[in-house]
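Same chain as my last thread, 222 residues:
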Amino acid sequence: MSELATAFVRLHARLAPVAFVPEVRLHQADDAVGLWELTEGEFRSAQPPPFWAFAWAGGQALARYVTDHPELITGRRVLDLASGSGLVAIAAARAGAAGVRAVEVDPLAVAAVALNAEANGVRLDAELGDILDGDAGGAEVVLAGDVFYSDVMAKRVLRFLLKAARAGATVLVGDPGRAFLPRDRFDEVATYDVPVPETLESVRVKRTTVWRLRPGLPGAAR
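reply #2:
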């Protein structure tokens, strides 16, 4: 975690409870549009958008579910894929995971995850890298909040998650009805009405579902 990235997160986000998971505090941006423009946005630069600065609906729902069902997590090795702010990873650590690995492709997100973990008094490994062409590294539970927001991302994530499930991992996904979620691959386990920033979602509440992935048959990931 670089000092510059850490300073950026501290400067542009303030520590506050998460709306739907108030047990967890995160560094969150007050001005969604301003920060998005500052980091140049999804379509103007190779720099990833500041997903780390907001508690997205899928992550909030998944963190709520993990918090309310710690028996799924306690004593198990957990991978939080595309961790963003680290909300889900922190919830898993608080639920008693044997170890939590939070993976992100954005250096600012890695810094935010580390800062947020420290603020919540939990230990986890914040890792920079794209692991979607690899495997879950022995994780017994794989968590992914709000990852089906584009066609390209959805296809890569699904292949990764199916591989993890077929290796024996429990795979849980939080999703607020994104267009690219392959619903036929999943079983619904919980549904919530999650408060969200209106500037990001154009609504104040998103109906959000936690899904469990069915492993399916080998070779059926496409």
